[in-house]
Write a structure and sequence with these properties.
Layout (H helix, E strand, L loop, with lengths): L4 E2 L1 H10 L23 H14 L4 H13 L3 H14 L5 H12 L3 H13 L4 H14 L3 H11 L5 H14 L3 H13 L3 H13 L3 H11 L4 H10 L5 H10 L1 E4 L2 E4 L9 H4 L10 H5 L49 E8 L4 H12 L10 E4 L4 E8 L2 H13 L5 E4 L5 E4 L4
Parallel strand pairs: 1-3
Antiparallel strand pairs: 2-3, 4-6, 4-7, 5-6, 5-8
Length: about 425
């Protein structure tokens, strides 16, 4: 993905830090507790999947499974659960906030912002998602906006994580004193995450020696392994610093390098207890057809994942990279599309789509058109979309440039093929 390379040094540090990212919780965990029980993310995910095997439309379990999967580092699986939740309850802000967190965890802050906007439009209080939106702004190099969001999150369920991220953001902006003062209450409480964050604050502000001493105090014996990373941090740009200390994404030889641990060390064994074979039947399970049996607590697998065997549908992202749309011809099942035009002559739709793209090249760049042939008419459609909310978001963008579009779902008998010119 984007030519990413694994960097052993950063991965070692992250494993020592005991978290998905450098500092603490993943974006999913920064939305508040995903589970009412005192359990590991792996145990929570297994419990939610068992519940979904009995009731594929269980909205709470879909949201909980999405957050748990993201906590375990499986953003693809999390996106699938949140998309299903959006289908069950398209007016709830929770799936939108979840998809935003998925984008942030993938290091794609620009794609996250429309989801945050939609979540807020649907009624999500700012304090419930500001911690993750702040990280999105940090990843864009917009530290002032990031810090405003983190401060808003200090009054919400993610206060401690927001405080850690705010300290890092202040350090990225060069405010060492402010960053250390922000951490002081957590340090006084003996918070391990704050101790690690303090080391990164020192490194970000140029005190590499102090950072190594702090790292060695927090994680004895680790300083020699992480010294090159800590020494290089001050040389990075603001957005690169935010990606490095929050997500473990580190530039290496002109390319991005991913460095992250899958889970906390104490969770590594539990990860293998979730399910098997990437649950290729999860799509059928969530749609209520023949479901695979619930995973046994002792099942051994390589990694937890819940992807489907169907082509991946990428969630909506804003221009100039609108990526909400599947690029391959759809299978014959109900999907959500946007209809742009209709008529009795299918061949005329190709020219119509060309004219629409000609006047809106940025918005419709890389977007392919399809003809949906029904007994009574032919429809010019784009899609399919992951869910109704994604379609609505893209319809709003089209409306802003004068293109009328509305949601349409095909029947199983409709024949949908790419436009002849595609």
């Amino acid at each position: 993905m984007r030519g990413l390379l694994h960097m052993r040094l950063v991965g070692t540090l992250l494993a020592c830090a005991g978290s998905v990212a450098f500092v603490a919780a993943s974006p999913a965990a920064a939305q508040g507790s995903y589970s009412p029980y005192n359990e590991t993310p792996a145990a929570a995910l297994a419990r939610y999947v068992r519940a979904l095997a009995s009731n594929p439309q269980d909205f709470g379990s879909l949201i909980g499974a999405g957050k748990a999967a993201l906590e375990l580092g499986d953003a693809q699986a999390a996106a699938g659960f949140f998309a299903r939740a959006d289908e069950v309850s398209p007016k709830s802000p929770l799936p939108q906030a979840g998809m935003a967190s998925v984008s942030v965890a993938n290091g794609e802050p620009q794609a996250a912002l429309p989801y945050f906007r939609r979540a807020q439009q649907l009624g999500a209080p700012l304090a419930t998602f500001a911690c993750d939106r702040g990280l999105a702004y940090d990843l864009l190099g917009q530290q002032a906006q990031a810090q405003a969001d983190y401060r808003a999150a200090l009054n919400g369920p993610d206060a401690d994580e927001a405080r850690r991220r705010l300290a890092l953001s202040l350090a990225i902006a060069g405010d060492k004193t402010g960053a250390l003062n922000m951490l002081a209450p957590l340090i006084a409480q003996g918070d391990a995450g704050a101790a690690r964050t303090r080391a990164f604050v020192l490194a970000l502000t140029g005190d590499s020696n102090g950072a190594m001493v702090a790292i060695d105090a927090a994680m004895p014996g680790s300083w020699a392994r992480v010294a090159p990373f800590l020494q290089k941090l001050p040389t990075l740009g603001a957005a690169q610093k935010a990606a490095a200390v929050n997500l473990g994404i580190f530039p290496d030889s002109g390319e991005q390098a991913y460095g992250y641990a899958a889970t906390q060390p104490s969770t590594m064994g539990a990860v293998s207890s979730v399910s098997s074979d990437r649950l290729t039947g999860i799509d059928a399970l969530l749609r209520g057809s023949a479901a695979p049996p619930a995973p046994a607590p002792s099942a051994q697998v390589q990694q937890p994942s819940w992807s489907t065997a169907q082509p991946v549908q990428v969630a909506y992202a804003p221009p100039p990279k609108p990526a909400s749309i599947q690029r391959t011809a759809p299978v014959a099942q109900r999907k959500v599309w946007l209809q742009l035009a209709s008529g009795s002559n299918p061949s005329a739709l190709s020219g119509q789509f060309r004219r629409i793209k000609l006047h809106n090249p940025e918005l419709l760049k890389d977007i392919n058109g399809f003809v949906a042939q029904s007994p009574d008419r032919a429809r010019l459609v784009i899609g399919p979309f992951r869910g109704p909310s994604d379609a609505e978001l893209f319809a709003e963008d089209l409306e802003s440039v004068g293109v009328d579009a509305f949601k349409w779902s095909n029947s199983e008998t409709d024949r949908i093929v790419p436009l002849a010119t595609e």
